[in-house]
Amino acid sequence: MTHILRIDSSARTDGSVxxxxxxxxxxxxxxxxxxxxxxxxxxxxxxxxxxxxxxxxPEARDDSAKSALALSDExxxxxxxxxxxxISMPVYNFSIPSTLxxxxxQLSRVGVTFQxxxxxxxxxLEDKPVIVVSASGGTPVGSDMDFxxxxxxxxxxxxxxxxxxxxxxxxxxxxxxxxxxxxxxAA
Length: 187
Hints:
- By secondary structure, the protein is of the alpha/beta class.
- The chain has one domain: Flavodoxin domain (Rossmann fold, 3-Layer(aba) Sandwich).
- It is 36% helix and 22% strand.
- The chain contains six helices and seven strands.
- The strands form two sheets. The chain has a five-stranded parallel sheet with strand order 2-1-3-6-7, with helices on both faces. It has a two-stranded antiparallel ribbon with strand order 4-5.
- Strand 6 (130-136), helix 5 (148-158) and strand 7 (164-170) form a beta-alpha-beta unit.
- The longest helix has 19 residues, at 63-81.
- The radius of gyration is 17 Å and the shape is globular.
- The mean pLDDT is 96.
């Protein structure tokens, strides 16, 4: 059975095009189990305690350090357990929502999801499909003004996940072509 990790990053819970299209993507996987992480209520940003805890070896972390990394550990475990990751992403000001950036920051951990070697960085996450459903008022995926998809492609690749597919709905006219892309997905 397929296990999907769904990340919702739209601030809108009602009327969100990215969420509606993501529902259609999920429907392409009948019988799948879905774990949902909805970022609309916010997600903590990295802070001094979090950063100090990441630089403390796991065996030396006290309760405070473990607490600082608890959410990050959950997020990493969710990504590791998923067979497919589906991200609903509106484009805000030509890039990803700040809550999605905070989620990426919680996921990006040296020694856990990537490591530095003498030959450069190496991703530690198992490669798996990531489907990013992007909705915007008029920023097409792959256009010169799209800073969202290149960032996600880079950061996931940095952590070892290179199998990303983008489904974009730019403006009202982009919804039907996005639905056509979704219909063509192989589950």
